[in-house]
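Late entry, evening session. Most of the bench is empty. Finally got around to the prediction I had been postponing all week. Sequence below, unchanged from the version circulated by S.P.
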Amino acid sequence: MKQSFTFWSFANRGLTPEQLFKTAADIGYRAVELVDEDLFPLVKKTGLELSSHRAFGSIERGLNRRENHAAIVKEFEANLKLASQWKIPGLIAFSGNREGLADDEVLEVMAEGLAKLGALAASEGVSVWLELLNSKRDHPDYHCDRTSFGVRVIEAVNLPSVKLLYDIYHMQVMEGDIIQTINDHHAHFGHYHTAGNPGRSNLDKEQELYYPPIFRAIKATAYEGYIAHELIPKGDVAGALKEAFDLAKKALG
C-alpha cells in the first residue's frame, strides 16, 4: 500500500505548498490529493503523484437528486480530463444532502448518476469513489452517512470503476466497528482516508482509534491503492505528517 495526504488539511499552517510537498516526499509519501489544479505542476516537480481529485465541487448538491445530474456530468467531464492528463487514479463524488429524502427514494437515482460517471471514467482508466461522510458533526444532513447505504448504492451501480471512499474518521463518528466493516465490505472500498477521533487530528494516543490493526486489516484485504491521511495537525505540520506515515509503515511491515 502507498501513503498519501490531503492538501487542504495541511495547507496554510506555516509551510508553503512547495515546502509541504517537499517535506512529505522526504518523509516517504508517494502522493498528495485534493490539490488545486494550479499546483499540479509543483506536485510533480517535488516528486509526488496525485492520488485523487474531486469529481465535482459541491458536497451538498450531489447525486441524490436527478435534477443535479446534468451539471454534475458536465463538471465531471472536465475533471476527468484532468485525471487522465495527470494520471490521477480516482475522482471523489458526493451524495448531496438528504433534505428529507429517504434512502429508498434516492437509491435508484444515485445509482443512475454514478453509472453515468463510472462509464465515462472507465473509458479513461479512472475510478469514481463515492465518499462516506458523517452527518453528525462535520456535514449535517449529508445523505450517504452509513456504510450499509453506501454499499447498497455501489451494488446497484455494479461497475468495477465505481466504489466507496471509506473514511475511517467519518465512519467512526457515525457507526464505529471499523475493522469488521473493512473485513465485510472491502470489496466495495476503492480508497481510504484517516484521521483521529475526536478532533479529526493526529493519529496519536490522545484519540480513540487504534490505527495499527486497522492498517493491518486493510492490508489483509490485498488492497493496493493509497491510504490518505486527511487529518488536521494539532501543531507541527511536518511532525504530524511523519507521525501518521511512520505509524502506518510500522503496522504494514
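Two things to note before I forget:
The longest strand covers residues 162-167.
The chain has ten helices and nine strands.
Will write this up properly tomorrow.
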